[in-house]
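Work Package 4 report. The design task specified in the project plan requires that, given a folded chain encoded as C-alpha cells, an amino acid be chosen for each position. We show below one input record used in the internal validation round.
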C-alpha cells in the first residue's frame, strides 16, 4: 500500500477526515505538554525567581522612572506610591529585625570568644 493510498477514500475505505478530531486533540495535547515542560525547565534554570520576586521598593523605583518619563500621571504615581507604602514599611521592618538578630548573634559570638580568651 502506498502512502498516497491512505488519503484516498475510494481505495482504502477511510480517510484522514475521519481521524481529524483525534489528530487535532493529540497535537493540542502535545503542544500543551511541551509548553508546560518549557515553563518548568525555565523556572528551574532561573532558580524559581520571577518578576514578582522584586521588592516593593524596587517596584516603586520602576514606577518613579515611569513617572519621570511621562508614562504615568502624577495621580497614578501617587496612588501606586500609597499602595506600596505599607509593603515598603513592612519590608523595612523585616530587614531591620533581621539585621538586629544578626547583630545580636555577632555580639553573642564575640562575647563567647572574649570570655573564652579571658579564662
Amino acid at each position: 500500500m502506498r502512502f498516497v493510498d491512505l488519503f484516498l477514500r475510494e481505495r482504502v475505505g477511510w480517510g484522514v477526515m475521519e481521524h481529524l478530531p483525534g489528530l487535532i486533540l493529540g497535537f493540542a495535547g502535545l503542544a500543551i505538554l511541551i509548553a508546560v515542560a518549557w515553563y518548568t525547565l525555565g523556572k528551574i534554570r532561573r532558580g524559581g525567581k520571577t518578576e514578582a520576586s522584586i521588592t516593593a521598593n524596587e517596584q516603586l523605583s520602576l514606577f518613579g522612572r515611569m513617572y519621570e518619563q511621562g508614562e504615568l500621571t502624577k495621580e497614578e504615581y501617587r496612588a501606586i506610591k500609597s499602595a506600596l507604602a505599607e509593603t515598603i514599611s513592612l519590608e523595612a521592618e523585616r530587614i531591620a529585625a533581621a539585621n538586629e538578630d544578626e547583630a545580636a548573634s555577632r555580639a553573642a559570638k564575640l562575647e563567647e570568644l572574649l570570655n573564652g580568651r579571658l579564662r
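The chain has a mean pLDDT of 79. Validation will be extended to a larger panel in the next phase.
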